[in-house]
From TrEMBL, chain A:
It comes from freshwater metagenome. This is Unannotated protein.
Automatic annotation (TrEMBL), chain B:
It comes from freshwater metagenome. It holds the Pfam family RDD. This is Unannotated protein. The keyword ATP-binding does not apply. One of its GO terms (cellular component) is plasma membrane. It is found in: Cell membrane.
């Protein structure tokens, strides 16, 4: 922005193009300056060749030396420990794009594997019993209490003081030899 | 984290609650594996008989419809009671035999949460199952011995060394699976 009365800054659209034409003047050649120019050109070419050679040589040397040197250094330090001590792995994990990772994980296969392994359909069948379990359990509880009531009366009529032993062996008992 | 292998081992060892057992009421858990009483068993029998009668009526209806296709002018009539009774008897016998030999439960047993087992607690074999069901049907009054018996056994159970136990869930580890 320019305030009124001020000179406009450079770069506000006004460009000054300066064209200088060097007019060669024949007969004004200076042998010394030509020689100097030639020498400069020669030095430049030599420098360029040296530069390329040296750069290539140094690069080749570094290619060989650096891996060895790094290996030697890494061999002497416990990189895992350093990473564990100094790197905030949680931050790295937090910044990771989980969606992309999950996209690569076969989630459906894993889910199917889990369902197969724990036999989920069987658990559901057993938990629900195919029928409203709560209602059935309530009915069973009712008959169980009536059973106990009748047993108690029968036991007292027969002067059975200890009550009755309704325990039955299960196959797990017989399998373990009890 | 529990691996599946570990979970199965813990389940077999009884260290983790069986998911199927979780739904059983606390009060009834102590009764699992005990021989059931008279009311439970009588209700199971009543359910089984009802199922048999329904199956018989439906079968007869279907049979009559089928006959209608062959001989269209046939007046519907119920069969003689004795035939009906005999067919029901055979059906119930086959049904109980197969149920006890295959799973230890008829539908009535399943609803009441009881299971027929032999003296070791295993599932009945086919001959024993057939014998027990025919015995129960020709001498149904033997069930009443459950009230008198000190171990909740009917006459059939006492003679054939069988038992009817509470098992309200079909467990993950089937007691009938012999290793």
């Amino acid at each position: 922005m320019t305030t009124p009365g001020e000179q406009p800054d450079e770069g506000t659209g006004q460009e000054v193009v300066l064209v200088v034409n060097q007019v060669p003047s024949p007969g004004a050649t200076n042998p010394v300056s030509e020689l100097v120019g030639l020498a400069a050109g020669l030095v430049g070419a030599v420098a360029s060749v040296i530069d390329h050679t040296v750069t290539a040589g140094v690069n080749a040397a570094l290619d060989r030396v650096v891996p060895i040197a790094v290996n030697v250094v890494v061999d002497r330090i416990d990189l895992t420990k350093i990473v564990l001590e100094r790197v905030d792995i949680d931050a790295i994990v937090a910044s990771a794009n989980m969606d992309k990772i999950i996209d690569r994980v076969p989630m459906v296969d894993i889910a199917n594997y889990i369902i197969d392994e724990i036999d989920l359909p069987k658990i559901i069948r057993e938990s629900t019993g195919g029928i409203a379990t709560d209602a059935v359990n309530a009915a069973r509880m009712q008959t169980l209490s009536i059973d106990e009531f009748i047993n108690k009366i029968a036991d007292s009529v027969m002067f059975r003081r200890k009550g009755r032993n309704s325990e039955s062996p299960t196959s797990s008992d017989s399998a373990s030899g009890q | 984290m529990t691996s599946f292998e570990k979970f199965r081992q813990q389940l077999a060892a009884g260290e983790v609650p069986n998911p199927a057992q979780v739904v059983i009421p606390e009060k009834a858990k102590s009764k699992q594996g005990h021989r059931s009483g008279i009311v439970t068993r009588a209700l199971a029998v009543a359910i089984d008989i009802s199922v048999t009668i329904v199956v018989m009526l439906v079968s007869y209806g279907l049979l009559w419809l089928f006959l209608l296709l062959i001989a269209p002018i046939k007046i519907f009539e119920m069969p003689e009671a004795s035939w009906f009774f005999l067919a029901g008897f055979v059906l119930l016998w086959a049904y109980c035999t197969a149920s006890w030999a295959l799973s230890g439960r008829t539908l009535g047993n399943h609803l009441m949460g009881i299971q027929v087992v032999d003296y070791k607690g295993n599932r009945l074999g086919w001959p024993l199952s057939a014998l027990r069901s025919i015995f129960s049907m020709v001498f149904p009054i033997g069930l009443l011995w459950v009230v008198v018996s000190p171990t909740n056994r009917s006459v059939q159970d006492t003679i054939l060394r069988t038992g009817v136990v509470h098992n309200w869930s079909v467990t993950l580890i089937d007691p009938f699976v012999k290793e």
